[in-house]
Fold each of these.
Amino acid sequence: MNITFLIGNGFDLNLGLNTRYSDFYPYFIEKSTENNMIRTWLEADELLWADLEEQLGKKLENVKESEQDKFYEDKAELDRLLLEYLGNEQEKVSIQNKEEKISEEFARSLRTFYNGLSEVGRNSITSTCNTYRNEEFQYCFVCFNYTNSLDQIVNITRKLKSPITTHQGNGAKRNNLLGSVLHIHGTLNEEMILGVNDVNQINSGFLKNDVEFLDTFIKRRMNNSIGQRKTEHAQKLIEDSHIICIFGMSIGSTDKMWWEEVVKWLNRSDNNKLVIYYKGYNDELDRKLPVNTIRLNNRLKREILEKGGADMKSPNIDKVQERVFVSYNSDIFNFKEIGFVS
């Protein structure tokens, strides 16, 4: 059985890294050349990387045909400074003499990934696990971050705790193992991709018809152009999964193709279950108001299904939504107390 995590920036924030868009913004303004056109497009109060990508697509309306080469140069400066900034953050990672604690926390998180769900959610995930209990369980990761922090943690855990645990299947012990980490948008050392989901997010008539521009600004086409086949590998990981967990990601439009893949996967089998981890719900939880929980549950489920192109008027949509679960303020992947960042 395959359990696949889609990992976003919330994972690095959990480690204590300053990798929010709002952390990078002042660095970009300080370091970029004054005539960089992108400086005037960005806002300091944007919260998410998806907001940055979406804003780039919208502001392309300001680029004249005579300024296309200038945009390439300015976008390259943005990319370079982002690599530089995240590289500085990545260097703060300190694992020496902490390997055992790091591997223990990671293994614990994977073993208990569904503990924060409601009783109905826990029972549903347990049911899927029981269906495949005669197989080995494998945890795989599609990482949307450029940093290598997840890779370091997976490698440490694989070295110290393999298998991370076992389960009983048909009278015999079955292993729970760590699988691969796939960086769908590249890394700080390998073809970092920053762009939009599709041509509809490019707000420029002439650029929409420029094949070279599309190959350098639409994420799927960039992946294909550099020949890494990461899109196909990630699609196969999702297709082969039985449970998918979305951790530390916003359900943004610039990653729309992945929400479409997740919705297609949900529709393939009644045994496929989706877990969305949501952070920032303290006020409602403190008041213990059921209406807030119900409305937020429904909003998050609708958001991913609508972004993924689900037919919300389908008679089967309720049954699909019943296999989507939300975990609020989960304690998994909690490395700050270990002192992961120096």
Amino acid sequence: MIHSVDEFKTHFESVRSGAGYKDPIAFGIARVDMGQKNQDKVLAASFAVVNYNESYLSAAVLFEALKSAGVSVDFSGSEFVAEFSAAAAAAALASFAPFAAELDKHPNVALISKIAEVLKDDPSAKFKAVFIFRDEKPASVESVYLKLYLLSLGKAELRSLVLDGAFGVLSNVAWDKDGKPIELEWLCENEIDLKMRGAYPAITSVDKFPRYLSHIIPADNVRVLDTAKVRMGAQLAGGTTIMPGAAYVNFNAGTTGSVMVEGRVSSSVVVGEGSDVGGGASILGVLSGTNGNPVSIGKRCLLGANSVTGIPFGDDCIIDAGIAVLEGTKVHIGEKDREALAKINPSFKFDRELYKGLELAGLNGLHFRQNSQTGQIVAALSKRAIKLNSDLH
């Protein structure tokens, strides 16, 4: 039992300085959903508190608690996952004793206190302590979910975490109306029984990723009008509105401010504050036509209905409805517009009439249009100020 804050700090700083010890870059404790047929198989993980480059003493408490519960902690890999038992929870709470009266100020302590309470009432509940030491390809379902939480909660910037291989780690499962995963194999084997008893679950989707709203409480000025439109791992800044219909925001993609989304924001895409992704507009992701180059949309941009964008935009750009600007698209810029655009893009050399779309990536103030007589894509200086309806955001 630790009796004072000073004793707590002294002891766990000593733990951190021990031979072979490593601070995790991220950690948390998740309640895990296990397979209905394969009961050793983790289907999903739910975190209530996640830590990123912070709370190192709390991590030391968890490591020591695991050791006291008979778990041998391995610091050598990129991640470490272990069952967090009632014994580990009790040991951690003994170390956290100086903070027991202030749970509202210490989320990790409040979390472990709740886990201990749950395990007392339901010993079959499964919890896993998850630690990431190096940001590499995830090797476990639990570490994938920890990274998705870090992104969706805004603790890590979009595109800043390695998620390569995540699809190979996660299982394809059926998600019921309560956001719980069900093994497809178990459903198939029990279909007759479930249907004849009228107990077949209401399935909302079959996917490797859950829905964002099944795990994340958004800011109070974020609106998501259809739960199917945002995948877990997306990041929605305050003021963002995701409309129903053609709108969609994939994992590791999202917004940095108030944004209206009525089109597709593919994986790895970041949309800047004040921008409007029009109905059916599509921003291509790294797997859909950008040669692996992630696309960012700057501030105050407008993507017209059913437009397609495969290059990054700077601020104050417009692409008209129904046209596509891809990396290889030939874009014509007239002399007067080249002179005007050069003033707001002084580092870019406007020295000819024709450019490939990729050459114009990231420039400010471009308005992409299509000549209705020749079909040629042209760019001019944008003269429209894009303003979102403040009543909606």
Amino acid sequence: MAARLEMSMESLNSFPKPMRALVIGSSGGIGAAFVRALRASPVEIQVEELHRHSLPSIDFSDESSIQNAAQNMAASGPFHLIINATGILHKSELMPEKKLSDLQYAQLKSVFEINTFGPALVMRHFAPLLDSQRGVMVMLSAKVGSIEDNRLGGWYSYRASKAALNMLVKTAAIELKRSQKNAVLLALHPGTVQTDLSQPFRGGSAARHADEAVADMLHVINLKMPEHSGNFYTYDDQQLPW
């Protein structure tokens, strides 16, 4: 695994050195793995992290915290890489809906707040912090958010929240091409990863370690240039349909 991380660091050669990176949602499994990988780099990378208990904190149930966090982070920028690694699939009292009769307003609101509304405001407040020459913002999405790829149904609120996030990424990328021509905004599917989010669903050994998933995603991120902005990719660099 250490060798894999070293390879991922070497693959960040499209970014300037020293590099400045920000990971939002760094208390989660994938977010923490991004922080580990970036801090393990043999070259200098300034890594900042935000989560609900960081200083400053960021909490998607509190709109003002997103703006405040961006204002606080401005002094550490501009950033060459901003990763939003937040997300929710379930919690103890809410499991993914298998059928229409499972839909509940409270669950839809809770899932959209974390998977869609919060990331939308991250794009609003943090996109201006991207470096003007090489700035990449990554929103972790999910393959099940692809409408065209939906063959099994179910998981209503999770699928819909990620599909809505994908539309926000696409729309924001169009605007950024006019105002920040070198910016790259991506939706990225990490695959099935060994985290609390996937724990009840991963099917034995099907899920990969978070460090492995992050190494793959950093390789993909390194390849993406302004002409790729607004697209939806997998961890192994396949472009997904919307």
